[in-house]
Design the sequence.
């Protein structure tokens, strides 16, 4: 079971480090096979571990990083209008999810 937890945690960590918007917590759920009459899933067989690990701990700021307006000089300013040559709107039809299995 511990080997399985680490395998899943490694996969989640890979997502945390390779996707900038994924956060930093590694939460896992262990579902054990239990046979209870007439039940397909027994919530008592699930163990939610939150957080299992914190993959990317944020550091603390050592100072104030706010700058007053006008601190950085503007050397030049140029405003160019955006000219739209053509615009195409494409309708995408929703696809139903395959639930046959």
Sequence:
């Amino acid at each position: 079971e511990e080997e399985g937890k680490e395998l899943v945690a490694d996969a989640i960590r890979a997502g945390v480090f390779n996707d900038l918007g994924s956060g930093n917590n590694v939460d896992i759920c262990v579902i054990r096979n239990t046979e209870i009459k007439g039940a397909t899933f027994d919530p008592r067989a699930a163990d939610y571990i939150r957080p299992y690990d914190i993959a990317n701990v944020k550091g603390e700021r050592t100072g104030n990083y706010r700058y007053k307006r006008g601190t950085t000089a503007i050397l030049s300013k140029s405003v160019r209008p955006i000219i739209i040559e053509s615009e195409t709107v494409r309708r995408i039809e929703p696809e139903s999810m395959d639930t046959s299995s």
Observations:
- The CA atoms of residues 82 and 88 lie 16 Å apart.
- The helical segments are 2-18.
- Strands lie at 25-31, 46-54.
